[in-house]
Amino acid sequence: MAGSTFASRSYRDAAVVLRTQQLGEADRIITLLTRGNGLVRAVAKGVRRTSSKFGATLEPFMVADVQLVHGRSLDIITQAVSRGTYGSQIVADYDKYRAAAIMAEATERLTDADADGTAGQFALLHGALSALARSVHPPDLVLHSHLLRAMSLAGWGISWEACASCGRPGPQESFHPAWGGPLCGDCRAPGALSTSRAVVGLLAALQAGDWERTRAADPTSRHDAGDVVVAHLQHHLERRLASLG
Known about the structure:
Number of strands: 8
Strand content: 15-25%
Low-confidence stretches: none
Shape: elongated
Mean pLDDT: 91
Structural class: alpha+beta
Helix content: 25-40%
Number of helices: 7
Strand order of the largest sheet: 1-2-3-5-4
Order of helices and strands: EEEEEHHHHEEEHHH
Largest sheet: 5 strands, mixed, barrel
């Protein structure tokens, strides 16, 4: 960047704060999902001081308009203006916090693998965090709907209407992540998860964002649907998410 000016290296974007990491005595490294520049890791200098003007704006699960400057290894955040103050409502409730942490980690992994799909992932995560903070839907349903839709944006959407192997119309009685979807009784493979008609219906509604159909789901179906979503996600990411622990 020799010869470049400060102005030429500066840019603005909307961003969701995915996570933070302490750096030195007063700084933090902030991992951001931006709408137009993808996944960005930047330094917020002095953000941990009580006198910092934008410390609270750069906490996890917050949405902000940020101004950054391209750096050698990490960019530098020079300004942050709050757009969505979701963090305090989320961290005050364990179920909301767990859901938000999983969504943030999954989004980071998905956008690391697919840098072209970040605008859609940004909008999806922004909406999910807003829904969590406002208690629009139960946290587990927001989480599993978000993960299914984020996976669809990344190219791993599921067709719930037919067997992923032979195409027999469903709903089917099992799901196998390696096959990419539901399997009928004849095609069921070792390691497949059993799925009832209610579970398949709930999964299809969550992926479509059809919240009206999710309201009648019983606790067992919600639990079993979550197992399917997590298995699908971790198979394609090829790793276990730390936040699931």
